[in-house]
Structures are given as structure tokens and as C-alpha cells.
Amino acid sequence: MDENNWSKQIKYLNKENTGVSKEIMALPNNRGGIYVFELKGITLPFIENYILYIGRSRLTASRNIRKRALEYFRKERASRVMIEEMFDRWGKYLYYRYYLDDDNARIDKTEKYLIRAILPIYNEDIPNIKEVRAPVPAFKDE
After folding, report:
1. How far apart (Å, rounded) are the C-alpha atoms in residues 108 and 101?
2. Is the C or the N end of the chain the one with fewer CB within 10 Å?
3. Where are the domains of the chain?
4. What pTM value is reported for the model?
5. Which CATH number fits domain 3-118: 1.25.10, 1.10.3210, 3.30.1120, 3.40.1440?
6. Residues 6+ apart with CB under 8 A from 32
7. 27-44 confidence digits (pLDDT tens)
8. Which are the contacts of 41, defined by CB distance < 8 A and separation ≥ 6?
9. Cα–Cα dist 123/121, whole Å
């Protein structure tokens, strides 16, 4: 995934934190893709960015990247405890970034790959994880 094909960071909520930003409302409604919610720190905002959640939006007749982004502001997120917690705790510091793609198979594969590689704190399910082993010391005391 070419870094240049990712969108710029977009503040998810408006300035008053009462609705979605104009930039979210202007997302493409005819494309699918991958998206991330990032926490932008307040101490060093130019370098403090933490990926909190990775998701996907397949492109279908009723699905697109804008529609998916707007669902997080609506009541649909209330049924997802971790997503609700992310907004309650970090809402005014949440930023959104997306990568447009219309190949649904590639979208699914890429989302799984990114979640496994990054392990975002608010992704409840880690795809295809079969076993998590306890850490082992690299050197044993003799």
C-alpha cells in the first residue's frame, strides 16, 4: 500500500464535537476501502498518532466509505461496546484516514493483514490468530 494513496488525517468530529466534520461528510460515496481511527495526541500533536481501530468498507450497491464512516456517529455503534468506549474516551481527539480500493477481496485481505500487524486496541477480533504464546526470555540467567 503506497503511503501516498492514503488520505490526509481528517478530524472525525466537528469543532464543537457534536457531529461529524464537513470532511467526513465529503468522503466519496462511490468507493470502498480501508480506514483507520487515529488518536492524535495533544502534547506533541505533530508526531503523536496512535492507531486505535482499523476497519473496511466493501463497495456494493448499498455500501461505501462515506456511509461506513457516518455509521460510527449514529446509534449503530452503541451495540459495539469497544467502539462506544473509543468515542467516549477519545472522541474529540479522533482522526480518520482512509485508503480507497474497490476490489472487495483485496479490501478484506488488507484489513486482516493490518489488524494482525498493528493489533489496534479497539479491534475486538484479531483475524486468523490461532495461538498466542507467552513471551520467552531471550537470555536465561545462569
Report:
1. 11
2. C
3. 3-118
4. 0.84
5. 3.40.1440
6. 56, 57, 58, 59, 60, 63, 64, 65, 100, 101, 102, 104, 107
7. 999 999 999 999 998 888
8. 47, 48, 49, 50, 93
9. 6
